[in-house]
Amino acid sequence: MDSDSNKKMARELSLLRHMSGVSCDKWRTGEKAIDTPFLRPYNGITRSKDIDEEVKMEAVFRFIAGPAGRVIRAVAGLALILVGLLLVKGSGGWIMAIVGLAPLLAGVLDFCIFAPLFSLPFMGPRLRDRVE
């Protein structure tokens, strides 16, 4: 196995341990699961499917917490503010401008509003440490 494959397997095993709460010495060998009670169906969804979704969400938050994600949030917030104040008239424009403050401040001050909804840290540096 190459190192990328080993890193992916180590991340999956770490997530399995975290999600299942099960301590087990036999995790996986190759593609064959051994002694893994946490891979049994849980409410109609297998735990391995949950892990795939969690890995995907970590990739999303890795991007959002990075420099490019911060710039995109700040620019999107600024665009909402400008469109709200310059193009949309009335109270709708003001509401759009106020809503635009959230992504602008999140990008500039380095925090992620949605991360706590996925049990991830709110502040950017801690979020980056967690998803790296």
Strand order of the largest sheet: 1-2
User: What Rg, in angstroms, do the CA atoms define?
Assistant: 20 Å
The rounded distance between the terminal residues' Cα atoms is 21 Å
Strand segment tally? 4
Tally of alpha and pi helices: 5
List low-confidence stretches.
22-46
Which term fits the overall shape?
A: elongated
Q: What would your notes on this structure say?
A:
The chain has helices at 3-20, 47-65, 67-86, 91-109, 124-131, and strands at residues 28-29, 32-33, 41-42, 45-46. It is mainly alpha-helical and 132 residues long. It has a domain at 59-131. Strands 1-2 form a two-stranded antiparallel ribbon. Strands 3-4 form a two-stranded antiparallel ribbon. A hairpin with a 2-residue loop joins strand 3 and strand 4. Helix 1 packs across helix 2, helix 2 packs across helix 5 (124-131) and helix 3 packs antiparallel against helix 4. The longest helix is centred in the middle third of the chain and has 20 residues, at 67-86. The model is unreliable at 22-46 (pLDDT under 50).
